[in-house]
């Protein structure tokens, strides 16, 4: 495997140009969205459950990944 970048084996396993870090982030956000919409757990608890040290860091990452805040997703889900 000489000359192969470190991301290449993971990308090959994930099916193409996808990087492992992107896959992990998407997986974390999917789990977080499920917890936000399907439970009454607090943001601190959900942040910890998906690997963030604080609700603030989780909120920023969630918004960057999804385009909305965790609270907005929860409100929208409750309104349905």
Number of contiguous helices: 5
SSE succession: HHHHH
Query: What percentage of the residues does DSSP assign to strands (E)?
Result: under 5%
Question: Which spans have pLDDT < 50 for at least 5 consecutive residues?
Answer: none
What is the molecular shape?
globular
- Helix coverage percent: over 70%
Counted beta strands: 0
Main beta sheet, described? Answer: none
Gyration radius from CA atoms, angstroms: 15 Å
Structural class category: mainly alpha
Instruction: Measure the end-to-end span.
Output: 51 Å
Average pLDDT confidence is 87
Structure description:
With 80 residues, the chain is an all-alpha fold. It contains five helices and no strands.
List keywords for this structure.
80 residues, mainly alpha, 5 helices, globular
What's the SSE blueprint?
Layout: H1 7-14, H2 20-38, H3 43-49, H4 55-66, H5 70-79
Helix pairs in contact: 2-5, 3-4
Please summarize what this structure is:
The chain has helices spanning 7-14, 20-38, 43-49, 55-66, 70-79.
């Amino acid at each position: 495997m000489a000359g192969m970048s470190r991301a290449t084996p993971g990308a090959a396993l994930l099916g193409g140009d996808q990087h492992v870090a992107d896959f992990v982030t998407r997986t974390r956000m999917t789990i977080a969205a499920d917890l936000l919409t399907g439970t009454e757990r607090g943001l601190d608890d959900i942040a910890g459950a998906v690997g963030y040290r604080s609700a603030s860091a989780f909120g920023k990452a969630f918004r960057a990944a999804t385009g909305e805040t965790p609270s907005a997703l929860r409100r929208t889900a409750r309104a349905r």
